[in-house]
């Protein structure tokens, strides 16, 4: 064990249950060791791996529906994507990350942790718009909400959800993105608190439910107009 990596807090055993416990411990070691050496996590973060990273990401699972396809945008060191895959074996997780050194680390973690519900995909979100579709998109410290919307919404099915992990500025970001939200045709956008009684402070998410974007609606309308119309009887 890394000299700086602290013992997991008691609450961690309540969050990571069954097979998830040994995987969470192993992932903590990977973050504290190779993760720091390769520059995916700062050395000062090692003492906070359990509370600030693993537990903070694990409680996001409270907002994730059952049996969904989730894409973790800009997965980085696998936060929250790998953690969600550990605590929620019922979901399939795609770790989407453009940088080679990060995808290499993610692939090694997936193999070592034996996570059969995870795939690692190298590339940017915009490269897969219209090619891949998901039920949920997660993101942590990737970009401000207005920019994140342009990456996430094209990857979501109609009615799919973006779960953006945000901190103290969550409400402010939501207000600043009002125009983008309106023009993107989303169904709803709200603040959601998760992890009460498990992490302090509790985690704040911005949950955005995708609707039919204006461009998609226009394309559907054009397809409908071009469709052959039934002949009227004489």
TrEMBL record:
Gene designation per UniProt: rsmG
Enzyme nomenclature, EC number: 2.1.1.-
Organism whose genome encodes this protein: Planomonospora alba
Protein name (database record): Ribosomal RNA small subunit methyltransferase G
Coiled coil: none
Subcellular location: Cytoplasm
Gene3D superfamilies: Vaccinia Virus protein VP39
Region (Disordered): 210-234
Listed InterPro entries: rRNA_ssu_MeTfrase_G (IPR003682), SAM-dependent_MTases_sf (IPR029063)
Role noted for this protein: Specifically methylates the N7 position of a guanine in 16S rRNA.
CDD domains to which the protein is assigned, alphabetical: AdoMet_MTases
Family: Belongs to the methyltransferase superfamily. RNA methyltransferase RsmG family.
